[in-house]
Amino acid sequence: MKVTIKNIKGLNKDVKVFIDKETMNSHMDEKYEEIKSTVNLKGFRPGKVPKEVLKRQFGKAIFGEVLDKVLKDSSTKALDENKIKPAGQPKLDLKTYGEDKELEYVMSVTELPKVEIKSLESIKFDQYSVKINDSETDKRIKEIAKNQPSFKEAPLKTKAKVGDLIILDYKATVDEKEFKGGQGKNTQLTLGKDLFLKGFDKQLIGVKKDDEKIVEATLPENFPEKELVNKKAKFNCKIINLKNPEEIKIDDNFAKNLGAKDLNDLKTLISKQINDEYKNSLNQLATNQILKEIGKIKVDEIPQNLIEEEIKILSQGMSEDEAKKNKVKFTETAKTRIKTGLILNEFGEQNKIKVSEQEIQAEVQKQLRMMPGQEKMVMDFYQKNPSAVASLRGTVYEEKILNLIKEKSKPNKKEISKDEAEKILKDAHNNDHNHDLSKEDKKKDKKKKIDSKSELKKKSSIKASKSKPVSKKVSKK
């Protein structure tokens, strides 16, 4: 195989590949030998069909298979040997080909640009650790206890009030007629929560054990018997029992009921939980700082075909006019995303970062935990959509790259309190919100001010709005 490289312009190259006739014929002979044992032709024993007969019967089909394989293998080898990383699928132009002929083709390639990654190891970002005070831990434990109320038997003749637990039987009618689903036994209601029917709880305030009470309530929109929706029902309620709330004692038994060894262990677990809540959010701020710094790194040229592909993604679902109107903004956003992806990918390759199947499965399991009750739907989605799995792989790959950058860099370490963490996160959120205000809104506001002075001038430049770099350009198989 003979390979000739011709630089066309910038990142565009023409790679000319020539394979002599003898080599092509040897590939054909190998294929004939491969199929000989599988072909059954009348008048010939299995495996004894002459090559010339096979050639007459299957020559064109076999040549097509051989050509496809040779093109795939030789183009990959030509790019690898010449260390050319294509940005997108190369275009092949066949010059000479055919049975008993040499193969010559030209591969038009847009090459990925060379990117500098040395500066990544000196990149600056803030790394926070949050100090959780004992008072914060105690406050969280009290909130947990409050949300797990305990009840005790109410004294006889006690009247029900908000917060009490009522156990009741009921029979309901609409227009004096009973209906399906209109009966309940030992139904428990915590008064004031209004979880049964709107306004139902309020009518039970003041009842005592063994009382009977008629309660009226409107059946909701989601009531199973559609013909009864929005109709007023009468509920004949028999109060079986009444219980008063009692304060939960926060002790070792309480902790054990929550899965801890004892109260001290629960405090340790809760403290870590609070810390992790802030840690994840603050780590994302660090990631955003790193991505912002990466955005400042210069890349001489970005492949136009990648920019066009990214613009298509950004304008998905838009009308042609909308896409055209936003093209300048989308072009800048696309360049930022692609540049960031190229730099991260180069760092990943140079540091030999790989994503294992175990890591992909762990990420799928993480997605399942985030959607309780919909596990089967999520699993089916990933099983039926290889592109979704590839996207997941890209996300894991990018995360591993960013984590390694954090390890190799020298962060500005800061220990902060919970209140300081909340302020930092709030400020970051407000900054993002202000930055993401529509450019068109700002433009309209400016236009109004200029119009009032009759000094309207046309503006052609549109800056790109903030956008997080996507994993797509970073994804690694």
Write a structural description:
The protein has 477 residues and is an alpha+beta fold. Among the domains are: 2-110, Alpha-Beta Plaits (2-Layer Sandwich), CATH 3.30.70.1050; 149-246, Chitinase A, domain 3. It contains 13 helices and 11 strands. α1 packs across α2. The longest helix has 32 residues, at 263-294.
Keyphrases for this structure?
about 475 residues; alpha+beta; Alpha-Beta Plaits; Chitinase A, domain 3; five-stranded antiparallel sheet; 13 helices; disordered C terminus
| Overall 3D shape | elongated
Report the helical percentage: 40-55%
Number of helices: 13
**CATH fold-level topology of the domain at 2-110:** Alpha-Beta Plaits
**Percent of residues in beta strands?**
15-25%
Q: What is the level-2 CATH architecture name of the domain at 2-110?
A: 2-Layer Sandwich
- Name the average pLDDT: 84
Give the total of beta strands. Answer: 11
- Report the radius of gyration as a whole number of Å: 35 Å
Uncertain runs are 437-477
CATH level-four homologous superfamily name of the domain at 2-110:
Trigger factor ribosome-binding domain
Q: List the secondary-structure elements in sequence, H or E.
A: EEHHEEEHEEEEEHHHHHHHHEHH
Structural class label: alpha+beta
CATH class of the domain at 2-110: Alpha Beta
Largest sheet: 5 strands, antiparallel
Q: Measure the end-to-end span.
A: 28 Å
